[in-house]
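Researcher: Here's a chain I'd like modeled. Treat it as a single chain, no partners, no ligands.
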Amino acid sequence: MPCPDMHPYLRPLKKQWTGLADPVKAAGMKAYLLDQFDFLGIPAPERRRTAKTFYQANPISNYTKLENIVKECFSLRQREYHYFAIELFAHHKHLWTPASGELLEFGLTTHSWWDSVDHIGSDWLSDFFLLFPACIKPLTEKWNRSDNIWLQRSSLLFQKKYKTATDTKLLKKYILHLADAEDFFIRKAIGWALREYGKTDPAFVIRFVKEHSLSPLSKKEALKRIHQ
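Model: Modeled as a single isolated chain. Structure tokens:
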């Protein structure tokens, strides 16, 4: 039976995924994320494969429709639909506009945990800010100074793929603003951001760590791959 309250686009996917669901695996997945989210119990490789096949076979040509589907996916209980929303939106980069920043923030702050936030960081943020560089400072400045740790974490990590294109002044500014944060995920993100840039300019990272007061975790992560 079709689900009358679900967007028509998602109904065939729901039918397919219901057939692949495994309650035993779902319990293990839920426990792994500290019982915060329900799961269907579809192993990640199978979930990614079926999701990719589905959205490639069912392209979306209208941004409003895409946004509505993404938001509906995030309204569903099972975590697999949240992952699907992230991958679906990334697949439709050709529909993005500068106004898509609002949906980025929605994704980062809805059912937030490291798995979804870092998935969005990899699949949305890096490409969005490369496409629309004028959006970088307005959005990431707001995130860095917000009270939401996931927005803060994203302000630190959105450049992690940029290599020589990294804005080091911005990276430094955002790290120093959060250097005294006690949250594990922020301290880890500071170190991760520096470690990634250290692959491009290790001298910058070594100097930065020496000159500024960072948590032991941030320092350890920053220097993990650098031979001094």
